[in-house]
Each structure stands twice: as structure tokens, then as C-alpha cells.
């Protein structure tokens, strides 16, 4: 393959700089004792200390992670089962209808999802708070899991299932020993996407969260509306650090499983 | 086997009924209610007033500009990324910023575009006076483009990655220039990626509200801002739902416009 020209390289580097500059800008000033993001006075960790000393903020952080993990897990289970179910549908029209319905929440604007869920929860009488936020996050994560799992199921050779059945595997065995291992990368990707969606969501949560409950996004929004606080910068520093750790972990896990499947071939 | 799988489908179908069909039905229902819960079509009449039509048009214009610039930056980036050695690693590096919370990134720009921020410092280096950058159309579009770039790059990258390089070689062998090859071979074959990219940019761009609130002050009002305003500030769920109904209609239209053609394969 040809090597990239200098101009192309410069372009890529520029895009990377633009993508990362705001993030590093935030992190840089999280160590500023000056209290604003304009002039760097001296190095301090006081903003990080402030984050860890603020029990309210810690509770919000825990809530955010808890919501992400729980909603990701439940959405992955329902979504994977749904994908397996969709593939088994022989009627083409029915299958396409389900797939279109599946995509509704993916393409719907957050605001519309948030507003309509707010109406739904108020109608049913669900109290706004942890439960409503969790349920909403599960709801908007399910379709993305389905989309991640479905291609894996479709590319799977059905003779694998027939072979397992012929060799005397029960339905349960077929599911747990043949189908699930085969589609595992899709499930894994779906779970990760669900967590990403949940952590990144602001608009839906903003609508369905009550007064007493808050996630990180909603909290940052209300803090940012009040003006610049370097506590937010410290939070960004922490978020970035954790994100990079997760990404590195994810990269190694997928690389290993890829290497394993290639070795298996 | 089918029997078992029917059972697997059950929770999923409940989800569709409760969180896909019911919410849309409720939004449509609420759009026909006034403040006191009486049935009315007043909201729809209001939507066709000058204020709302103008707001819809500006919202579309902004979404168009945002999508245009995002595509303009993302396509070459995705293209060049597929040519790099460790392309999956580089793609990962593009994805990482999209993992950082949206609000944090938006917040960063409050500082960057601030009156004493680095952007104005740069402007001063070139000998101009500091400008008010925050609360302008420019800042709104810039921040939105910044946020959507990774989401546009991913689908384009994937479709470029799937492109069989023999097509490019064949075109070049047959005497097509690099530009012709791109215009007649590469771009048409990756149009699906571009379409998905446009979908994930244009529709959210119509409905962004935290960026308009944080970066554009109240200068820019999009359909999303209006819905948020009606639901959470004015508490006029009827009008909010009406705008939501139109947003859904626009969404369906955009989906149809950018829909992928079936190529006769399975699935």
C-alpha cells in the first residue's frame, strides 16, 4: 500500500488535534489553582479533592455508573433474545416490520424520546427518579444491542445448528453451546454500545429525571449553566482517564478474541 | 426450535409495545390537547403560524450547515484513515472523544470561546480585538460539528473499509484519473456510509438543545429547544407534543430520503 502524502498526514493530525484539544484543555485547567480556564497560575489538586469530598457528586457518579451497567446488562439480555427471535421469524414482512420498529428509537431525536417517555411515565404513574431513568436507558439501548447481534446471527451458518441437533443437543444446548458462543462478539459489542449510550445520554435523562435524582450529564449541565467551575474540569479528567482505561481494555479483549478465532481457523 | 424462539421474542415485543408504539401514540394524543386537557387542534394551527414556521426553517438551515461541514471534514478523514497502517487503532482514537460526555465537551467550549479564552488569545495574536464568540451562530455550528465528527466518520470508515480495492485498481488501470476514480467509483460505492452518517447527524442536529442553551445562549432556537421549552419550562405539553409530532414527521422524511436501497440480498 502506498504511504500517505505529507498533506494527508497533516490533515489527519489536524483533525486529531481538533478532536482532542478541547478535552486536554479541560484536563489541563483542572490542575489550575486560579479558578478559571484562562490563565494558569499554579499546579493544584484541590479540584480533584473537591470532587472526592463532595458526597453529593460521588453519589451522582455512582448512580451514573450503576445506571449504565444495569441498563446495559438488561438491554443486552432483552436485545439478544429479541435478535434471536427476529431471525427465527420466517415471514419476511413481519420481520421487516419488527426491524423498522426496532430502529425507531435509534433514529428518534433524544428530545422526542425524552418527552414521550415523560408522558408515558406520568400516565402510568411511575415516580420520576432512579426507576424512570433506568427504564428509559434500557429502552433506548435495546435496539442498538439488536443491531449489533443481528449481523452475527445472520452470518451464522444454519447447518451448525442442524449439526448440533443431529448430534443430539437439546434446544438449550444449541442456544448456550452453539448460538451464544458464535454471536458472543456481537453481544459484547452491543453491551459496550449500550453502556456508551447510557453514559453519554443527557437529553432523555434530563426529561425523565425527577428533582431528587441526577446523573453526571444532568449535573454537569446545571453546573455549566451556572458558569465555569473547575470541579467540572476535574470530573472531565477523571472521566477521560477511565474512558482511556476502558478503551485499552476493550482493544486488548477484542484483539485477543480476534487472534483466537484466527488461530482457530 | 421456533417455539423456543417465540418465547425469546416475548420481552422484546413488550418493549416494542411499551417504548416504541405507546410513546408515539401518546405524543400524537397529547398534541391534540390544550392546557386544560380538552381536545383541540389549536396547537396545529399555532405550529403553522409565522413564528413556528420561521423557527422550523432556521432549525433546518442550521442542521443542514452542521451536516454539511461535518461531512466535509469527516469524509477525507475516514478515507485517509483507511489508508493508515494500524487503521483499527486510529479509528479507536477517533471514537474515544465520542465517549467523553457530550456535556463536558460542550462545557470546554464555554472556556475556549470565552472572552478571555484561548480562541480570543489567538485572535489577538493576529492583531484583532477580542470578539464575542460565545452566543453566536458560529460557535453553535462549530461545537455541533465538533461533536458529530466521530459519528460521521465511523459509518463512512466502515463502508470505505469494505470497498474492494480491485475496483479502484481497475478504474486506474482503465485510465481514470484519481479524481474520476473517486467521483465515479469510490464515492458511489460508499454512499450508504455517507447516508448513515447524514442520518446520525442531521436528525440530532434538528433537535439539539443543550448546545443551543449553553453555547448559543438563546440566540439559536431549534425544534429541540422549543420542545424542551414547552415541556419543562412552559409546561405546555400539548404544544410540545405538536412540535414533537412534526419532528417525527421530518425524521421519517429524512429516513426515506437517505434510506438504503435493498440490493436483493437476504436480510
How does this model look, in words?
The complex is a heterodimer of chains A (265) and B (267). Chain A is built from 11 helices and no strands. With 265 residues, chain A is mainly α. In chain A, helix 2 (46-53) crosses helix 11, helix 3 crosses helix 8 (171-200) and helix 7 runs antiparallel to helix 8. The longest helix of chain A is centred in the C-terminal third of the chain and has 35 residues, at 230-264. Chain A is globular and about 75 Å long. The model of chain A has no long low-confidence stretch (mean pLDDT 88). Chain B is an all-alpha fold and 267 residues long. Chain B has one domain: MetI-like fold, CATH 1.10.3720.10. Chain B has 13 helices and no strands. Classes of the chains: A mainly alpha (265), B mainly alpha (267). The interface between A and B is large, with 85 and 84 residues.
Task: Write a concise synopsis of the structure shown.
Chain A has 11 helices and no strands. With 265 residues, chain A is an all-alpha fold.
Question: SSE layout and pairings?
Answer:
The complex is a heterodimer of chains A (265) and B (267).
Chain A: H1 6-29, H2 46-53, H3 55-88, H4 92-107, H5 110-124, H6 130-155, H7 158-166, H8 171-200, H9 203-208, H10 216-226, H11 230-264
Helix pairs in contact in A: 1-11, 2-11, 3-6, 3-8, 4-6, 6-8, 7-8
Chain B: H1 2-31, H2 42-47, H3 50-83, H4 87-99, H5 102-112, H6 118-125, H7 137-162, H8 165-173, H9 178-189, H10 191-207, H11 210-214, H12 223-233, H13 237-257
Helix pairs in contact in B: 1-13, 3-7, 3-10, 4-7, 7-10, 8-9, 10-13, 12-13
| Oligomerization status of the protein chains | heterodimer
Beta-strand content of chain B: under 5%
Question: How many E-type strands of chain A?
Answer: 0
Number of helices of chain A: 11
Arithmetic mean pLDDT of chain A: 88
What is the number of helical segments of chain B per DSSP (H or I, 4+ residues)? Answer: 13
Percent in strands of chain A: under 5%
User: In CATH terms, what is the architecture of the domain at 55-216 in chain A?
Assistant: Orthogonal Bundle
Amino acid at each position: 500500500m502506498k504511504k500517505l502524502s505529507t498533506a494527508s498526514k497533516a490533515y489527519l493530525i489536524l483533525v486529531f488535534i481538533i478532536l482532542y484539544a478541547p478535552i486536554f484543555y479541560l484536563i489541563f485547567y483542572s490542575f489550575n489553582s486560579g479558578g478559571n480556564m484562562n490563565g494558569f497560575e499554579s499546579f493544584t489538586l484541590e479540584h480533584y479533592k473537591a470532587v472526592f469530598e463532595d458526597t453529593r457528586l460521588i453519589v451522582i457518579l455512582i448512580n451514573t455508573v450503576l445506571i449504565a451497567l444495569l441498563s446495559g446488562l438488561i438491554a443486552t439480555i432483552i436485545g439478544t433474545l429479541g435478535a434471536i427471535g427476529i431471525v427465527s421469524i420466517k415471514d419476511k414482512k413481519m420481520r421487516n416490520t419488527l426491524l423498522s420498529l426496532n430502529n425507531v428509537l435509534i433514529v428518534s431525536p433524544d428530545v422526542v424520546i425524552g418527552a414521550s417517555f415523560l408522558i408515558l411515565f406520568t400516565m402510568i404513574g411511575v415516580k420520576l427518579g432512579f426507576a424512570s431513568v433506568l427504564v428509559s436507558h434500557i429502552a433506548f439501548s435495546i435496539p442498538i444491542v439488536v443491531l449489533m447481534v443481528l449481523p452475527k446471527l445472520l452470518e451464522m451458518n444454519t447447518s451448525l445448528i442442524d449439526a448440533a441437533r443431529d448430534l443430539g443437543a437439546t434446544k438449550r444446548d444449541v442456544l448456550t453451546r452453539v448460538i451464544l458462543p458464535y454471536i458472543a462478539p456481537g453481544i459484547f459489542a452491543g453491551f459496550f454500545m449500550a453502556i456508551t449510550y447510557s453514559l453519554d445520554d443527557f437529553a432523555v435523562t434530563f426529561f425523565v429525571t425527577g428533582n431528587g435524582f441526577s446523573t453526571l450529564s444532568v449535573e454537569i449541565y446545571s453546573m455549566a449553566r451556572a458558569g465555569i467551575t473547575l470541579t467540572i474540569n476535574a470530573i472531565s479528567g477523571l472521566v477521560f482517564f477511565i474512558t482511556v482505561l476502558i478503551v485499552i481494555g476493550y482493544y486488548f479483549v477484542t484483539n485477543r478474541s480476534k487472534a483466537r478465532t484466527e488461530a482457530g481457523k | 426450535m421456533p417455539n423456543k424462539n417465540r418465547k425469546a421474542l416475548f420481552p422484546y415485543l413488550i418493549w416494542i409495545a411499551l417504548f416504541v408504539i405507546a410513546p408515539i401514540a401518546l405524543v400524537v394524543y397529547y398534541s391534540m390537547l390544550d392546557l386544560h386537557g380538552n381536545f383541540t387542534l389549536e396547537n396545529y394551527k399555532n405550529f403553522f403560524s409565522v413564528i413556528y414556521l420561521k423557527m422550523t426553517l432556521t432549525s433546518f438551515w442550521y442542521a443542514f450547515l452542521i451536516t454539511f461541514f461535518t461531512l466535509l471534514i469527516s469524509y477525507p478523514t475516514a478515507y485517509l484513515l483507511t489508508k493508515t497502517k494500524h487503521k483499527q487503532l486510529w479509528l479507536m482514537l477517533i471514537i474515544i472523544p465520542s465517549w467523553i460526555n457530550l456535556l463536558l465537551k460542550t462545557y470546554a467550549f464555554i472556556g475556549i470561546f470565552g472572552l478571555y479564552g484561548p480562541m480570543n488569545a489567538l485572535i489577538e495574536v493576529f492583531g484583532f480585538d477580542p470578539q464575542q464568540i460565545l452566543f453566536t451562530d458560529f460557535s453553535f455550528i462549530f461545537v455541533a460539528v465538533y461533536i458529530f465528527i466521530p459519528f460521521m466518520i465511523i459509518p463512512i470508515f466502515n463502508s470505505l473499509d469494505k470497498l474492494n480495492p480491485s475496483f479502484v485498481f481497475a478504474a486506474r488501470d482503465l485510465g481514470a484519473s484519481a479524481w474520476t476514480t473517486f467521483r465515479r467509483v469510490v464515492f458511489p460505492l460508499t454512499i450508504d456510509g455517507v447516508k448513515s452518517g447524514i442520518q446520525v447527524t442531521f436528525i440530532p442536529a434538528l433537535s439539539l438543545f443543550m448546545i443551543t442553551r449553553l453555547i448559543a445562549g438563546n440566540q439559536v432556537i431549534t425544534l429541540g429547544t422549543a420542545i424542551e421549552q414547552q415541556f419543562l419550562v412552559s409546561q405546555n405539553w400539548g404544544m410540545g407534543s405538536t412540535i414533537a409530532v412534526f419532528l417525527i414527521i421530518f425524521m421519517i422524511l429524512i429516513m426515506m430520503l437517505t434510506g438504503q436501497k435493498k440490493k436483493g440480498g437476504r436480510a
